[in-house]
Amino acid sequence: MGAVLAARRPFGHTVTDTLQVTERTAHTSWCGVVAELRLPEPFGTILVVHHKPSWPYGYEHERELQALATARLVDGVVAERPVRHTVLLGDFDATPEAASLRFLQGFQSLDGMSVCFQDTWPAVHPGEPGPTFSPANPLVRQGDMPEASDRRIDYILLRCGPHGPTLHVSACRRVLVEPVNGVYASDHYGLVADLTLPGHPPGRWAEGS
Fold first, then answer.
1. N or C end: fewer C-beta atoms under 10 angstroms in the chain?
2. pLDDT at site 209
3. SS3 label, residue 10
4. What is the spatial distance between Cα 129 and Cα 33, in angstroms, rounded to a whole number?
5. 10 Å Cβ neighbour count for 154?
6. 201-207: which pairs have CB atoms within 8 A and are 24 or more residues apart?
C-alpha cells in the first residue's frame, strides 16, 4: 500500500509533512505533500497538495489536527512562493460532515484558524452523494472493512481567496467504478475534475457589467 503524487510536467519546489500529530498516528504511516506545478500561461504556478490523514473510524481528532497541519503548510508555502492556484486532493478518510472536512471547506474554524477550499464534487453534482468507498465494490467487501457503508471520502478541493476559488470546475466525475476484464483498480473509486479559469478574475466585475 502507498500513495503517489504524479504529473506529466516536472514538479518544482516540494515540501512534506509526516502528519504525525498524536501518539496514535504512529500506527498510520501516511503523509502530506505540497508540490509546485508550473503550467503555461494563463494558468501559471499551481500548488498541488496531497493530503492523507489517519484512516481509523475513531480518529477524527487526529484528522482535525492533520487538516490543521496541512492548512498551515499550504499557507506557509503560498506566503513565500508565486502561487496562483492551489488544489488539495486525496483520500481524506472522512465524510463531508466530519469536523476535518467542515474546517477545510470553511464551515467551521479549528484552533483559532479558518480556511476555505471548495469541494469540486457538489459544485457539479449538488445533492448527489457520489460515494468513493462503497460495498458495491467487491474489494471493499473482501477487504478489512467489510461492513463499511457508502462514504464519500476522496476529494479534489480548490483553495479560495476572499472572493472564492480561483479556478472553475467545468466537470467532476468518478472513474474506475466498473471492472476491466473482471478486475477492479482499487477499493476506492477515483475522482477526476476538469478545471478551467473563471470567466473573469474573482474580486473584479466582468467588463461591461
1. N
2. 57
3. coil
4. 27
5. 21
6. 201/166, 202/161, 202/162, 202/163, 202/164, 202/165, 202/166, 203/161, 203/162, 203/163
